[in-house]
Amino acid sequence: MWLLAALALALLILLPLGWLVYVSVSSEGGPTLAHYGKVFTDPHLQRAIWKTVVLAFWAGLVSLAIGAPLAWLSARTDLPGKRVIRGLVMASFVTPPFLGAFAWVMLAGPNAGLLNKLYRGFTGAQEPLLNIFSMPGLVFVVAIYTFPYVFVMIVNTLELIASDLEEAASILGAGRLRVALTITFPMVAPAILSGFILAVLQALALFGSPAILALPAGFHTITTQIWALFHYPPKVEMAAAFSIPLLLATALLLLVQKKLLGRRGYASVGGKTGQRRSIQLGLWRYPALLGCLAVMACAIFLPYGILTKAAFSRAWAQPMTWQNFTLGNFRFTFFEYSSTQSAIVNTLQLGIATACVGGGLAALLAYIANRRIILGHQFLAFLALAPLVIPGVVLAVGLFVAYTRPPLLLYGSLWILFVAYVTKEMPVGYSQSDATFRGIHPELEEAGRILGAGRLRVLREITAPLARSGIIATWCFIFIGVIRELSASIILFTPSTKVMSVVIFDLKEEGQFGAIAVLGLFMLAMTFATVVMMQTALGRDVLAAKE
User: Fold this and answer.
1) Where are the domains of the chain?
2) Rounded distance, CA 231 to CA 135, Å?
3) CATH for 44-326?
4) What is the pLDDT of residues 215-240, one digit of tens each?
């Protein structure tokens, strides 16, 4: 069983990457680097690379500018409604970025965008206030759905740091600014840099938001350019060669992040008595709260509001009156549009299958690595986390090359999407399972073995009950990831294997904003229902453990 799990993991990761590298250097006359030469000399491809670098850098900075203050306010101050703010940040985190981009097209499109129409109505101006079809617009949309990565990294670090050092510096006469610069910032600096790198990585790998906002603006990013290379006639060799630099860039950034997190230069040494005392904001409490709510308005309130309005409107750009109210968008989306029902079924089938198989495989691999059951367990852990460095579009190119030829002809079926989702979600499942098994001390299992129980009985009666909460969380995280996935699906789907994200993208091409809003709200409802289910299940487990 252990060896079969290891073989399955190696097949999932190494086969598509091996084919990707092979195709990138192959030609009729033998191995060649000509495809790479075209990548770095073609002006259009060079422009796509440069635009991607600009997008990733500025999205990382803006995410840092939003996430770091929010994290500090939530973790170290007496900000009102901190639990609500954290819940809204989680809502932003699980919102598909491409769906947020659709919403902002309706909010800040230069002609029909709601905010621009209100601006023209109040001021009489001819020019729009905002143009979402631009690089600043793209950076803004990417950042408001990427900053939760920065927020989580920094808030977790701040909550581990006791206030003793800061209070000691204040007693010795240091002002609040000096305390922040000399005490707090050095200890949080690795988390800040790591959060910035995570935000950059997300911006590099995104397909949906650039496809919705950058293409109408007249420019490509690397991910949209790779997608364009699959248009007829497909240029698979060029797509493979163009994917390798993005793969190497993400791998390098993750290596840098790992080095930062592995630093030992900044550490707080203390025991359980260390306390974290809230900083009193005084008169700034409510201005700070308004600032937080303004961010949440951009990420949650305004997008969700315009999607709801569009879902119930005959014409989404017109005022919401009784004459403009309709339920026809729901009828069209679910009963008249030919792709919707099959896409929902495909998404649910893939989500459940991926969560069950991927979650089970991830748990098995994490158990092998934690208990060091087989030789080479470190390599298994490395492979399980390796998809972190593979953007979805790059993975899709590798899978397309690997499974469109004998002996594994999966293209055209749901199986290739299933393989893509299991591979893409493996790091999430493995990380959650690894944290779960680290919290279960091996001595509990050893005690059962000493008393005569076999390994399977120990797993069934000791390990599995203790790991139940972590396994439920793994299942839910993978299921949510499948629901919102677009970057790999957009290359691997066929007319009979569409999923909800692809149907939303198709509806955008047809200008069916009402149907987009309906299906988008349905997707969000599925996502939040999964989150509620996870919290309910974990809450019950916690109560059971306490009893």
Assistant:
1) 44-326, 341-547
2) 24
3) 1.10.3720.10
4) 999 999 999 999 998 887 888 888 88
